[in-house]
């Protein structure tokens, strides 16, 4: 793909006072090899990442993404990222983005086996075309995530609230959804509570209120969901974080999967049961999400 960009970062210690990080950045050819074969991100998926939406060169919701990167790093016992350094790297990547929609990825890996520092890099590339999902919606199936609603608290080493590089399970769930004739999935706990999609947060509208599964640590707190709720509250709608039993999915009169790059994809069917698309709300959400935030 043309106009890609990659920047290797030498992480500096979080408390370091500096105004300029240029000497810690090295722009590299994004199509050339850049990582060591001893890299733990590629060997074990041992690291954390963020995907930031970019619209006409403006990186969206940078602060919530940086805060979540720091939260994920803390959950994984990785050194705290220096947020000014990452902010500067995001600004460099945003300058390299083509007009229209793009995506900036931030990656912080545990580094090379027995190596001295974490490995870190930022990339930028044009976003995929999500017009069809935003317009016609996505059909979803519910899939068992294989743990119960107490797992995050009982077993924090599962890293359920961290955005780690270990996305093989999420990708396998999407393939299973496709095998079942759907476009996407909604994960359920083994005791039947609604969680999230493999790469998006879920918002349901039930009795006029917008509801999302409460962030108990078993799901990733979505930056897009938080931003959408703020927008809806500004318009006078009620929003709630709630424990949602799977049976309540049938009570929704509209629903969306929301994420930083695809934005708001209305759900057109759940487990084969059609769900109407609220055109006006969907278009309003996507217009909002495409505006500078
Ligand atoms: N949940 C999961 C598992 C995700 O991977 C993502 C995004 O990639 C989200 C939720 C949505 O997060 P955000 O809105 O910050 O993109």
UniProtKB/TrEMBL annotation:
Pfam families (UniProt xref): Aminotran_4 (PF01063)
Gene3D superfamilies reported in the protein's UniProt record: 3.30.470.10, D-amino Acid Aminotransferase, subunit A, domain 2
Keyword entries, A-Z: Lyase
Endpoints of the signal sequence: none
Molecular function terms, GO-annotated: 4-amino-4-deoxychorismate lyase activity
UniProt xrefs under InterPro entries: Aminotrans_IV, Aminotransferase-like, BCAT-like_C, BCAT-like_N, Class-IV_PLP-Dep_Aminotrnsfr
Entry keyword Repressor: no
EC number: 4.1.3.38
UniProt record similarity statement: Belongs to the class-IV pyridoxal-phosphate-dependent aminotransferase family.
Entry protein name: 4-amino-4-deoxychorismate lyase
Protein source organism: Microbacterium resistens
